[in-house]
């Protein structure tokens, strides 16, 4: 671990934007676009970044590319905000290696989703117990609760037990769908039991961000191509202005909802980032969606509508 590097902890708040992984039109990792994308996110006021997430196309990268992408993002950020690295893997050896490599390069912590097909609470708890013991107490862990992708249900009881038993569990990425009741239960039970309060950042494209903030979320961990909106909404909630926050959110909602579509959403996000000058190419590695003329026209219309509403 580097000296004085930012650390992800229980007090983490705001927007930890999920970074896209830029490629050239021929499908190679685009290092220059990693630099420009990083500056784009930081200029929009994000509190942190998350790289090699599921929406960052991490499973499509080779081992050497994984290290290259992680290293380039961390070098460009250069400690300005904490960077969380997605390290989920079916291989415990790979998960351990990538986690320790990430921390040695300056990461603030790691994000881990459960391996697929864990059915019982005991199995989910056992898996994360193995991970926590493997990584040790010095590496902060964000639990990724994303049953739509993993097929694993993480109960409130399991999340609470992991929080109680492992001090390195400092954050939950809350992406159950629908999951707002789960969020309320975690906060209510934590307060009633005088349990350690961990940071909760929400995903699902930010689609339910105002309601989730009212239920106790600390911010968002998602990759909407207009991260400044997410930042402003979180800031307004922190300032005690929930109505103003929701009014602002609603202006962007048609585009946010459009980008959230399963299957095609990543391509829409990268195309929007390209149009905003953050990356050079909207290329999505196979298997992945390719936008057609109708898709591009729809996106143009929604962006034009947003520009009109903001004006």
TrEMBL record:
<feature type="binding site">
    <location>
        <position position="221"/>
    </location>
    <ligand>
        <name>pyruvate</name>
    </ligand>
</feature>
<keyword id="KW-0456">Lyase</keyword>
<comment type="similarity">
    <text>Belongs to the DapA family.</text>
</comment>
<dbReference type="GO" id="GO:0005829">
    <property type="term" value="C:cytosol"/>
</dbReference>
<dbReference type="InterPro" id="IPR002220">
    <property type="entry name" value="DapA-like"/>
</dbReference>
<dbReference type="GO" id="GO:0008840">
    <property type="term" value="F:4-hydroxy-tetrahydrodipicolinate synthase activity"/>
</dbReference>
<dbReference type="InterPro" id="IPR013785">
    <property type="entry name" value="Aldolase_TIM"/>
</dbReference>
<protein>
    <submittedName>
        <fullName>Dihydrodipicolinate synthase</fullName>
        <ecNumber>4.3.3.7</ecNumber>
    </submittedName>
</protein>
<dbReference type="Pfam" id="PF00701">
    <property type="entry name" value="DHDPS"/>
</dbReference>
């Amino acid at each position: 671990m580097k000296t004085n590097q930012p650390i992800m902890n229980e007090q983490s708040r705001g927007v930890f934007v999920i970074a896209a992984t830029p490629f050239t039109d021929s499908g190679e990792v685009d290092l220059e676009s990693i630099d420009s994308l990083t500056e784009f996110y930081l200029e929009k006021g994000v509190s942190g970044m998350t790289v090699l997430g599921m929406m960052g196309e991490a499973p499509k990268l080779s081992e050497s590319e994984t290290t290259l992408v992680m290293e380039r993002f961390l070098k460009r950020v250069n400690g300005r905000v904490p960077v969380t690295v997605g390290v989920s893997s079916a291989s415990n050896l790979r998960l351990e290696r990538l986690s320790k490599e990430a921390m040695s390069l300056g990461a603030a912590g790691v994000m881990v989703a459960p391996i697929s097909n864990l059915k019982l609470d005991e199995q989910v708890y056992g898996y994360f117990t193995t991970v926590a013991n493997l990584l040790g107490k010095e590496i902060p862990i964000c639990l990724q609760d994303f049953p739509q992708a993993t097929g694993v249900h993480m109960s409130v009881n399991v999340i609470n037990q992991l929080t109680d038993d492992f001090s390195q569990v400092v954050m939950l990425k809350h992406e159950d769908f629908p999951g707002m009741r789960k969020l309320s239960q975690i906060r209510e039970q934590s307060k009633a039991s005088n349990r350690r309060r961990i940071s909760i950042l929400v995903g699902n494209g930010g689609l339910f961000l105002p309601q989730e903030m009212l239920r106790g979320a600390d911010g968002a961990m998602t990759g909407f191509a207009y991260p400044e909106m997410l930042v402003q909404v979180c800031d307004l909630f922190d300032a005690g202005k929930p109505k103003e926050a929701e009014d602002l959110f609603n202006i962007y909602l048609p585009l946010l909802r459009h980008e959230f579509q399963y299957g095609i959403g990543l391509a829409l996000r990268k195309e929007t980032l390209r149009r905003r000058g953050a990356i050079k190419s909207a290329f999505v590695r196979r298997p992945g969606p390719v936008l057609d003329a109708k898709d591009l026209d729809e996106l143009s219309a929604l962006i034009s509508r947003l520009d009109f509403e903001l004006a």
